[in-house]
Design goal:
39% helix; 4-stranded parallel β-sheet; 17% strand; EC 2.5.1.47; cysteine synthase activity; Cys_synth; 6-stranded mixed β-sheet; alpha/beta; cysteine biosynthesis; 300 residues
């Protein structure tokens, strides 16, 4: 008998209906808001899907081989997922991240055996990405580059999108996703639009001055190459305060322990539901709340 490995249990995550947040309005308008629980993946986030996809497919093409050094700039979730996938596949993983990100993320990456390089907070992810490219030019390893690697959105086209379509029996009318690397929204949008071009795709972006881990508004020069703006129908801006408050509400009112970017997507999903009728709104709960405990978003 062949038993499943950790790779086999990535994806196929559950989707649940919100029961209390926005309940009165949703009932009146005949709407349902559904949360896809990507924190149920083995390394705790939606990034498990592209992390394994990028390593596995690069290996299949002969671009890398077990024992090689992989390098990636990451704000957290991709780094954790890549550290897990590299451990499974037998690679040395070097992760570059700004120094101000939560301590839980750094500790989790190290637990999977990854090596960390912390960059100045002032440089943000842009500096981390530049350093990763510099290290590759110096021959110190291979950059997978989640921001430009087509294997990132491809896995969402092949798995996440079909799961949403199947779990809603094709009734999904709106899809909401936080936008960081944009792999999730790009891949899911492509699939859903092929099934039904009328489905609206909404991206959650941070409002001016907000710092929400996992949601980014990139400068033009750093806009992810995988991003196709024609796949996104609308951008809705969420403030840091609204995202953090929704984070607490999701835990207290729904029993969904989620991260801040997931809560930002939930807040946007609620805005969409408030203006629609007979809608099935799906948003991605991209990770779990336990990797944000040190940020102070949850009461001590």
């Amino acid at each position: 008998m062949k038993y499943p490995t950790i790779e086999d249990v990535i994806g196929k995550t559950p989707m649940v209906a919100l029961q209390r947040i926005g309940a009165a309005d949703n009932a009146q308008r005949s709407n349902v808001v559904l949360a896809k629980l990507e924190g149920n993946n083995p390394a705790g986030s939606v990034k498990d899907r592209p992390a394994l996809s990028m390593i596995q497919r690069a290996q299949e093409r002969g671009d890398i081989r077990p024992g090689d050094t992989l390098i990636e700039a990451t704000s957290g979730n991709t780094g954790i997922a890549l550290a897990m996938a590299a451990a499974v596949k037998g690679y040395r993983m070097v992760l570059i991240m700004p120094e101000d990100l939560s301590i839980e993320r750094a500790q989790t990456m190290k637990a999977f055996g990854a090596e960390l390089i912390l960059t100045p907070k002032s440089g943000g992810m842009e500096y981390a990405r530049d350093l990763a490219e510099q290290m590759q030019r110096e021959g110190k390893g291979r950059v997978l580059d989640q921001f430009a690697n087509p294997d990132n959105p491809r896995i969402h086209y092949e798995t996440t999108g079909p799961e949403i379509w199947a779990d809603t029996k094709g009734r999904v009318t709106h899809f909401v996703s936080a936008m960081g690397t944009t792999g999730t929204i790009t891949g899911v949008s492509r699939f859903l639009k092929e099934k039904n071009p009328a489905i609206r795709i909404i991206g959650a972006q941070p409002s001016e001055g907000s710092r929400i881990p996992g949601i980014r508004k990139w400068p033009e020069a750093y806009l992810p190459k995988i991003y196709d703006p024609t796949n996104v129908d609308e951008l809705v801006y969420v403030s840091q305060d609204d995202a953090e408050e929704m984070c607490r509400r999701m835990a207290r009112e729904e029993g969904i322990f989620a991260g801040i970017s997931a809560a930002g997507a939930c807040w946007v999903a609620q805005q969409i539901a408030q203006r629609e009728s007979n809608a099935t709104v799906v948003f991605v709960v991209c990770d779990r709340g336990d990797r944000y405990l040190s940020t102070g978003v949850f009461p001590a």
